[in-house]
Amino acid sequence: MDFGVFNLMGYRESGKSGAQIINEAVEQTCLADELGFGIAWFAEHHFSNYCICPSPLMMIAHCARITKNIRLATGVLILPLYSPARLLSEIAVADAMCHGRLVLGLGSGYQPYEFDRFGADLKHSKAMAREFIDIIEAAFADDFFEHDGEFYSLPRTHVSTRLVNGFPQVWVGGDSDETYRLAARKGFIPIFSGRTDNVEGLLKTRARCEAAFAAEGVDPSRMPLGMLRPVCVTSDKEEARRYAENVRYQLRLAGALRRREELMQGTMLVDKPIPNDPDVDQILDTLPIGDVETVAERLTAEIDALRPEHISIYFQLGDTPHRVAMNSIERLATDVVPLIERKLGPLRDIGVNAPRKHVPRSQAAAAFS
């Protein structure tokens, strides 16, 4: 397994510039590249301070020239908000610009606030995403393709920029049985947000994912898996507590946006309590937040129990200072990982050897058997 950095690129304080947020994400990505992280993810959201990045592929195109080894991932492309004719070419160009380091994270979206402003219907989002994925596969399987479906129609079409190393690795985001079964059928890797769950809660999600893979005839013991986790490595108790409070802040915004209950004050989304609102002390006692030893102990327990392929980390949430995020990235790589490996052995030996290339649907089950 490996670690990644997840760039959510939001802000909490009014007046923070978009340029500063983008520059901080770029600096964090470059540091992660230097320290040997596996993937840098770039979120996609629209029209709010929850996340200011409307195009992960634009961030990937920029970072392609200033990083060397880290893979660059869309986290995730909200497929129902795109035109297939445009997105297909943009995927191929981004892949070319990073010399085949592109990782495709795909999803269906969940925020009505965004869909309303695109004139898209959220109730059809999962069906639209499934059909869109079929189009992406067809577009790069042969020189020409055509499609006539429920939501999209394209005449005989050739995408002129081709993928550097063939179809990239694909991850699907979301926490639903439908998403997990899609991953099993297609040979994709599911990635879910553990939110503030403890190991027991994470294992319940893994069990649901395994059941979905089994239902599709794929051996669940060979199931790859990715997780998103908030992590802050700091010996400063006030910094740790503020980070934990920012975790709750971000969860509150996401929950309100999901339920069409967003609260705006001027141009800012603000947080309000949500059902099952976690206590800050509970977050501090559960998540990998704290000094090196605390973070190593908690990540070791999670990795040992779940055996993930990849853990992508929110180093910066809410108004977490850039310097705190940068320090966490460095200390995770230099101080925390050695402690984890002392307990569990080399990270490269943990998790499933998931296929690095997409496999056709007909071969998906065989690839994991």
Provide structural commentary.
- The chain is of the alpha/beta class and 369 residues long.
- The chain has twelve helices and 15 strands.
- It has helices at residues 18-34, 56-64, 84-97, 112-118, 125-141, 177-186, 199-215, 237-258, 280-286, 292-306, 322-344, 361-367, and strands spanning 2-7, 39-42, 71-74, 77-78, 102-107, 145-148, 153-157, 170-173, 189-193, 226-230, 232-233, 263-265, 268-270, 289-290, 310-314.
- The protein is globular and about 60 Å long.
- The strands form four sheets. The protein has an eight-stranded parallel beta barrel with strand order 1-2-3-5-8-9-10-15, surrounded by five helices. A two-stranded antiparallel ribbon has the order 6-7.
- The chain has one domain (2-367): Luciferase-like domain (TIM Barrel, Alpha-Beta Barrel).
- Helix 6 links the parallel strand 8 and strand 9.
Regarding quaternary structure, how should these chains be classified? single chain
Beta strand count: 15
User: How helix-rich are the residues, as a percent range?
Assistant: 40-55%
- Gross geometry: globular
State the low-pLDDT regions, or none.
354-369
Q: How do the strands of the widest beta sheet line up side by side? A: 1-2-3-5-8-9-10-15
CATH architecture classification:
Alpha-Beta Barrel
The H/E string reads: EHEHEEHEHHEEEHEHEEHEEHEHEHH
CATH homologous superfamily label:
Luciferase-like domain
Number of domains: 1
Query: Gap between N and C termini, in Å?
Result: 19 Å
